[in-house]
Write a structure and sequence with these properties.
Blueprint lengths: L5 H9 L20 H15 L5 E17 L4 E16 L4 E11 L3 H6 L58 E12 L5 E11 L7 E7 L6 E8 L3 E2 H4 L1 H9 L12 E15 L3 E15 L2 E18 H17 L13 H16 L3 E3 L3 E2 L6 E7 L3 H4 L18 H12 L10 E6 L7 E4 L3 E14 L3 E12 L6 E9 L4 E12 L9 H10 L6 E12 L8 E12 L27 E10 L2 E2 L7 E14 L7 E16 L4 E14 L7 E3 L13 E3 L1 E12 L3 E13 L10 E10 L4 E8 L7 E7 L4
Parallel strand pairs: 3-14
Antiparallel strand pairs: 1-2, 1-11, 2-3, 4-5, 5-6, 6-7, 7-9, 8-9, 9-10, 10-11, 12-14, 13-14, 15-17, 16-17, 17-18, 18-19, 19-20, 20-21, 21-22, 22-23, 23-25, 24-25, 25-26, 26-27, 27-30, 28-29, 30-31, 31-32, 32-33, 33-34
Length: 775
């Protein structure tokens, strides 16, 4: 596994590489929504087109940290993290010189690779190249190749590109408006006023950004910026060659569970600092996004912090050179001699010796390596003792910890709010998409009330104006064992803060909220082994749902609804591995009460901590209140129910062991129908017992687990205990409990348990394979 190299950083920055057609078109008359926007944009464009020759050289301590997670409903898991610290000596006339201070990575399997000698310190160095003062400031260092007539600010058929809002012809793709001013206080008491310039794409396009730039109107310099892609990148939609492969090539063999391939650039935030009241140089950069391959979602975060240590302007460098030459020519500088080197290697060795004397750490030069985004080479100086690199005191803390020098969380939140307040760009006409069955992971399922069920979805995006873009979708399912059609018609409006969806539906519903019984995992268990852990009923009605944006973890949801319930019966007994001589393998389905119900429900599920070597805490709160009646009856009943589950995972013995604790309970007030009970049994609530081994209006449950941590997973022993029934009938002697052993990979991503119930007639010896456990 080779996530840990400098190409990883390049892959992230590729998504913010710039491109722009030089159309030569006349200025669009409607590009500027106010006169100030036109003035500020003109100043910024002039500054962008001029090569900044004011800096001759600079030295900076650069710290960088990256994390890539795997997102599932229970929690995010950190798959890769890296921290790097370097000192960059940049000179406009020479190759970049980088002193490696520290580099460290963590990911599954790394320790094994180190032991086997398949990894060295260079694989941990995620740094690419220092900032070029003459390069682009919005896209942080992107610039044309010096030996090429083409420009990276042009559309590319080979690489992903983004239209730069300051390039010639940009006013045909964007509109601009001015916003509030931002006043910065300088150390000498002076103040600097910057003007916010909103960049508004004329239409949603994966090659355009939506954002806000803070510009010094006098110099045109970019001081701050925050932006995102105006439309999510979809590989099948936006790469014609891949679309052809999906239709008639090898890509069509990729399982639908791993499609589509998308990337959502949630936010890029950049801030510059004014050095010695003369030159704007980078201070911080933050990148947040999410890549996805079907059901697999990978949030990515990157922080960069620059601490400028010295700057020599072009004027100062010229004056120094004249003074040195004059001193050498006149002989008035005793002990000062001009030194010549026979080769670059000799010069690098001399510099390494100087740094070794200064830092009291022996350094040595490495051969030059070509920079990924720079036509010049990057030369590395590294400690002779390589063990110092992973343990360097200059390494920053992980990205989830606050640290001096990096972007302040409060400032990032303020910049994100500015981004979220921008109007959503209109869609170019009506965008259609149609998928069915194998093409998407949620359009195939198997359970005992439908048998194999195949779904199809038609989606359309349209709109702009006051409401912003709207997404309309029609999803239908047909079960081969249950020929009654099921469908949901939904209208959704999504922003950076939330999604709001209005739905009209007739669909199969599972009784346990959030248990995912209609998703891939339960369907596979039902088809292969005849183990269907869900209880189902049919719901027909209307609902309004609020939840987080798609690029964020779904940690909360609020739903208002009115619906009619009807019971569903078992319709199939087929499974690939079963006792063919038996009378049936699936248990009967719950007989749900036929009723009309109106109410609301909410779910809060925050999780703190993604690193398996650190403590993790999760909390899940659920509440529901509704009124219901049997059709034809004059009276009605009401109920309120609520539950809370807390989860804690703590590393012990230097993280060689982990202990997990889970405890929860819930109760119901009022008269609730049978489908609104709490159900216990199965791997997520009570191992060693079948699904619905116990159910009732009240429940309590808990589990304790101790796990030995290995390179890519854990081996554990556990015990579960639970009870469900009427609140007034609780007796600790009625608790069901079981024990078992298990194993997982990637912090509980894939979990296999062998469990045995110890009490009650429902106890079983069970083998459970499932996803998304706490350990």
């Amino acid at each position: 596994m080779t996530l840990c190299n400098r190409g990883f950083t390049s892959a992230i920055l590729l998504l913010v590489s710039a491109g722009m057609p030089r159309t030569g078109a006349a200025q669009a008359s409607d590009a500027y929504l106010d006169p100030v926007a036109a003035e500020v944009h003109a100043a910024a464009r002039t500054a962008w087109q001029e090569v900044d020759a004011s800096v001759a050289r600079y030295t900076a301590l650069i710290q960088q940290r990256i994390a890539a997670d795997l997102r599932l409903p229970l929690k995010d898991r950190t798959l890769y993290r890296n921290e790097t610290a370097v000192r960059a000596f940049w000179d406009r006339d020479h190759d970049a010189l980088v002193q490696v201070l520290g580099a460290n990575s963590r990911y599954p399997g790394r320790e094994s690779a180190v032991r086997e000698g398949d990894l060295n310190w260079l694989d941990d160095l995620a740094f690419d190249a220092p900032f070029e003062p003459g390069g682009d400031r919005l896209f942080f260092g992107a610039r044309p190749e010096e030996d090429s007539e083409s420009s990276v600010f042009e559309p590319s058929q080979e690489e992903f590109w983004v239209a730069h809002p300051l390039a010639p012809g940009a006013d045909t793709l964007y509109r601009y408006r001015s916003g509030d001013t931002l006043t910065l206080s300088l150390p000498d008491g002076r103040t600097l006023r910057t003007v916010r310039l909103d960049v508004l794409p004329r239409e949603a396009d994966v090659h355009r950004i939506s954002g806000a730039l803070w510009i010094d109107p006098t110099s045109g310099a970019l001081v701050q910026a925050v932006y995102r892609l105006s439309r999510r990148f979809d590989a099948l939609r936006d790469i014609p060659e891949l679309r052809e492969e999906d239709e008639a090539g090898e890509f069509r063999r990729v399982p639908g569970i791993l499609k589509p391939w998308t990337f959502d650039l949630r936010m890029v935030a950049i801030e510059y600092g004014l050095w010695d009241f003369q030159t704007w140089l980078p201070r911080t950069m933050r990148v947040e996004g999410e890549a996805a391959a079907g059901i697999l979602k990978f949030p990515v975060r990157m922080d960069i912090a620059y601490r400028i240590e010295s700057v020599t302007t072009a004027e100062e460098a010229d004056a120094e050179a004249r003074a040195l030459r004059a001193a050498l020519d006149s002989g008035r500088a005793p002990g000062l001699t001009e030194r010549h080197f026979a080769s670059r290697a000799e010069a690098m060795a001399f510099i390494a010796e100087l740094l070794s004397d200064r830092d009291a750490v022996p350094y040595e030069p490495l051969p030059a390596t070509e920079g990924a985004r720079d036509s010049r080479a990057t030369r590395l100086l590294v400690p002779e003792d390589r063990s110092r690199i992973a343990a360097s005191p200059d390494l920053p803390p992980p990205i989830w910890e606050d640290a001096p020098g990096f972007a302040d969380p409060a400032e990032l939140e303020q910049m994100f709010r500015a981004l979220a307040d921008l109007p959503e760009p209109p869609s170019p006409g009506v965008l259609w998409a149609a998928n069915w069955g194998w093409h998407r992971p949620d359009l195939l399922r198997y359970n005992r009330v439908e048998g194999p069920a195949v779904g199809a979805r038609l989606q359309a995006r349209t709109g702009g104006g006051l409401t912003g873009p709207l997404d309309l979708s029609l999803t239908g399912f047909l079960g081969l064992a249950d020929l009654e059609p099921k469908a949901r018609l939904q209208l959704e409006r999504a922003t950076l803060r939330r999604r709001a969806a209005l739905g009209l539906y007739r669909e199969v519903r599972a009784v346990e909220p959030g248990a995912r019984h209609l998703e891939v995992g339960n369907s596979v268990n039902a088809l292969l082994f005849g183990r269907d852990d869900g209880e189902y009923f049919r719901a027909t009605g209307l609902d309004l749902t609020l939840r987080p944006p798609e690029a964020s973890r779904a940690w909360w949801e609020v739903r208002l609804y009115g619906e009619r319930h009807a019971s569903l019966s078992k319709k199939t007994d087929f499974a690939l591995f079963r006792d063919w001589g038996g009378e049936g393998i699936f248990r009967p389905n719950l007989t749900a009460a036929r009723l009309d119900e109106a109410g609301g429900e909410f779910r809060l599920a925050p999780w703190w901590g993604t690193d398996p070597l650190l403590p993790q805490v999760g909390l899940e709160l659920y509440g529901q209140g509704a009124a219901w009646r049997v059709p034809g009856d004059a009276g009605s009943d009401e109920f309120v129910r609520a539950s809370a589950v807390a989860r804690v995972v703590v590393p012990v013995a230097d993280a060689r062991w982990r202990v997990g604790v889970e405890a929860g309970g819930g109760t119901t007030f009022g008269d609730a129908p049978v489908q609104r009970n709490w159900f216990l049994g199965g791997p997520t609530t009570l191992r060693g017992y079948p699904a619905s081994a116990r159910f009732g209006p009240t429940f309590v449950r808990g589990r304790l687990e101790a796990a030995r941590v290995l390179d890519v997973g854990t081996l554990s022993a556990f015990t579960d205990a639970a009870w469900a029934g009427d609140r007034d009938d609780f007796d600790a002697g009625d608790l069901l409990y079981g024990v078992g052993v298990g194993g997982s990979i990637l912090d509980g991503l894939i979990r296999l348990d062998l469990s045995h119930g110890l009490r009650g007639p429902e106890r079983q010896f069970r083998v459970d394979l499932y996803l998304d456990a706490i350990l």
